[in-house]
Amino acid sequence: MTGPGPCATRLLSHPLVQPDNTSCGAASLVVARAVVDDAYAELVVDGAHPGTGFATSGSTAVDRFQQETRDMHRRVTSLVAVSGRLQLPWPAAFGTPPWAVANQLSARGTPYGTHVVRTRPETAYVLAMPALERQVPVAFYVGDGWLPRHVVLGLGTAPHESLRIYDPAIGGVRVVTRQAFATRTLPFGRWSQAWFVVTPD
C-alpha cells in the first residue's frame, strides 16, 4: 500500500473529532476505511461517492464524518458483524470492543487479530510496525493502569522510531515514539499506556 489517496489526505486535514465520549473506536474505523478506500474518503469529504453517485447528508466534511462515525458505532456494537456473521453484541455506552474493531478492519479481506500488550506495552509498537511500514492501519487500545479507555489509529511511521497516530479526541494526528510505548507515557491525556493492538494477522 502506498498510503492515503488524495481524498483521504484532504479528509485528514479536517478536525475529525469523535462526536461523543464513546465513539473513539468508531471514529478510528471511519478513518481506517478512508485511508484504504479513497472513494469512501471522497464520499465523506465531498458528500458524494465517485463511482455510485450515492450522496450523504451533512453540509461539511466534519458533519459527514461525525454522521459516518455514529453509523459505524451502531454497526460495530450490533449483533451482526460487517461480514454478516454473528458477533457478541456490546453496549454502545461502553465504546467499541476489540473484536468488533478486528471484524471491521478485516472487511477488506486481510484478517486482523487482537493482541494483549498491557504487561509489555512496547510490544504494541513492535507488533504494529510491519503493517505501519506499509501504511496499513492498526488500532491501539490505550488506557491507564486499570482499564483500556480510548482507541487510536496508527497510520504510518515517522522518523526516530516513531509512529503517526490519529487521535479521535483531538481530531488529528500525533507523532508517538517507541519510548512512549515502552515507558507508558503515551500522549493521549490520562490514557498513557497500551492495552491491546489490533493488527493484520
List keywords for this structure.
single chain; 201 residues; alpha+beta; Cathepsin B, Chain A; 7 helices
Protein model, in words:
This protein is of the alpha+beta class. It has a single domain, classed as Cysteine proteinases (Cathepsin B, Chain A). The protein is built from seven helices and six strands, in the order αααααβαββββαβ. A six-stranded antiparallel β-sheet has the order 1-6-2-3-4-5, sandwiched between helices. Helix 1 runs antiparallel to helix 2 and helix 2 packs across helix 4. The longest helix is centred in the middle third of the chain and has 16 residues. The radius of gyration is 16 Å and the shape is globular.
Per-chain topology:
Layout: H1 6-12, H2 24-36, H3 38-46, H4 61-76, H5 98-105, E1 112-116, H6 122-133, E2 138-143, E3 148-158, E4 162-167, E5 172-177, H7 178-182, E6 193-200
Helix pairs in contact: 1-2, 1-3, 2-3, 2-4
